[in-house]
UniProtKB/TrEMBL annotation:
Sites where the protein binds 3-phosphoshikimate: 25-26, 30, 181-183, 211, 334, 361
Main location: cytoplasm
HAMAP family associated with the record: Cytidyl_kinase_type1, EPSP_synth
E.C. no: 2.5.1.19, 2.7.4.25
NCBIfam families: aroA (TIGR01356), cmk (TIGR00017), PRK11860.1 (NF008816)
Subunit (UniProt): Monomer.
Organism: Variovorax dokdonensis
Active site: 334
Protein name (record): Multifunctional fusion protein
InterPro entries noted in UniProt: Cytidylate_kin, Cytidylate_kinase_dom, Enolpyruvate_Tfrase_dom, Enolpyruvate_Tfrase_sf, EPSP_synthase, EPSP_synthase_CS, P-loop_NTPase, RNA3'P_cycl/enolpyr_Trfase_a/b
Chain ranges of the Cytidylate kinase domain: 457-668
Amino acid sequence: MFDTEFLDLPPLVEAGGTVRLPGSKSISNRVLLLAALAEGETLVQDLLDSDDTRVMLAALAQLGCRVELPASTGNTDGATRITGLGGALKDIRQAELFLGNAGTAMRPLTAALSLLGGEFELRGVPRMHERPIGDLVDALVQLGCEIDYLGNPGYPPLRIHPVAQEDLHLDAPIRVRGDVSSQFLTALLLALPLAAREQTITIEVVGELISKPYVEITLNLLARFGIAIERDGWSRFTIPAGSRYRSPGSIHVEADASSASYFIALGAIAPAMTGTDGIRIEGVGGDSIQGDIRFVEAARAMGAQIVSGPNWLQIRRGAWPLTAIDLDANHIPDAAMTLGVMALYADGPSTLRNIASWRVKETDRIDAMAAELRKLGAEVETGPDFIRIQPLAAGTWRAASIHTYDDHRVAMCFSLAAFNPDARPVRILDPKCVAKTFPDYFETLFAVCKPATVPVISIDGPTASGKGTLAAEVARQLGYHYLDSGALYRVTGLAARRAGLEPNESNETEIARIALHLPLEFIRGQVLLDGEDVGDDIRTEAAGMDASRVSALPAVRAALVDLQKRFRRLPGLVADGRDMGTVIFPDAPLKVFLTASAAHRAERRYKQLISKGISVTLDSLRLDLEARDARDMNRSTAPLKPAEDAKLLDNSEQSVVQSVDQVLQWWHQAQPFKSS
Ligand SMILES: O=C(O)C1=C[C@@H](OP(=O)(O)O)[C@@H](O)[C@H](O)C1
Ligand SMILES: C=C(OP(=O)(O)O)C(=O)O
């Protein structure tokens, strides 16, 4: 996950390949609650691991359910094991639960806990305290439950008081409004079987039910847990007497169909990458129980070519530009946001109707989409329950900094704007908001996208100038990959040793082959070789000797050039060394040549060594550095010198923070983002 302040997407041009998507949020949280209410164990396969499911799991654990995550079960199949309460609280009758911004946790738990007879406090993030729950509370109070609002009436936080089952009024139908969120009805359907052991319970929906397919998911999963609800259209639901949650033993979670919408749109917008047949999605397909699978119909109407099978979808670009759409999107409220960005690539204005619920989700999504689409240059019209978007012609796109309102879907759908024909970069602010349902969204996207070019910042300079510290920090703040080219020979020497190869000419070809495929990463100050931190191993005297021996082998040097170039991956690279800007990445859009006086560098090195208990003198270090500088600058092959277009940075009198800020400032000057 990118937990940077922002993530810059360079212009993207093609896409292709296979993605496996994480589990459905709506299925995961329903299954977790049902498993918690049932008796015995339920094994949940492919459960979503994200903020929304984590708050649900934490709440269930607090309520006394046994929750065993894949890591702790040791299950090779990666399942999560839930041991349920069997329909009644056990030892724990009181808890304060934090439910983040998960509507699928807050609403169903409110209903279930109101019927279980304990004292509970339910809270969330500030936005959750602005998302309505009054219609659900009204329905529960009608039934005899006791619930207080701890903040604004109609909104969380809530306090739930215990009531005895025999005091509940179950004879009359329970009326609930269905026109603000379908989750209120879902919550009642999931929880009321707790009270239906001896008596049939009827729920009546008041007002037109929205987001109906989500109620279908609820009914489907209740059936899997042994509860067969009868329904009369969308207005009357009956839970038969004698209902009892029965674990299916093991249950599989499909991949998330709303998350699939971004990749379906990607296949519709991006020309297929050479050698691929567009985008293939695995984990969810035509037979999905999730309503958002009907996004496929909308994408087809806009021109996408989509074929599907059980558990897979294959998407290719068809009509281009896309065909404008006028759609009642009430049945796919979440995925419809993706259509909002696809509309920019259409042949006329697109209208999404009947989406008033957008206003009470993670943010006011109608206003948020309009504001951010306008930043890209689009003309947008909105009303209480619709949005109309004019497409953007080539030559009219603007580079924009997209505010994401802590709304995962805003972040995800706007990433698709990076395919604009004007090659404008797109900045996504607070990219970690995708953690609500899809923590690795951007990594998954990058794995199937081809950029026009991957941005590189090269930082070259003499020894002890602090380039490693500077480069690693710049990379961290930008979310870019980091290449410490100075470590490559040492790692190659170590890898050769570990493969049982003496670093000499007779093993040159074999060592070059190893060097070319080194599974190497530089993350958070660590040098990871195949996931293992080898930082200490490569800094020994013996490793230094091996490094200098492998560096004398021409085939190894050539392989390492290729390896270095392969670090240039989305979303970007910061590379430090001696010839990054001059030889390896001569087209880097920002080149920095970092220096500091020999006196300052000697002093830094001195402090470093003394703190490690190594005794040296300042004078000898300084003389040594000066001699190395002279050698480096005057050698005939790849002498250490700034690239002609490099910016010179002398950090003698600067703190690390100051030099990082300077480099970022240069970088931002090169980026034409409109401020947010
Ligand atoms: O029940 C569910 O799993 C959901 C129902 C929908 O909400 P509304 O019914 O409030 O539209 C949807 O937007 C949400 O992401 C998940
Ligand atoms: C509306 C959403 O979430 P929630 O389940 O919190 O309602 C969503 O995921 O788009």
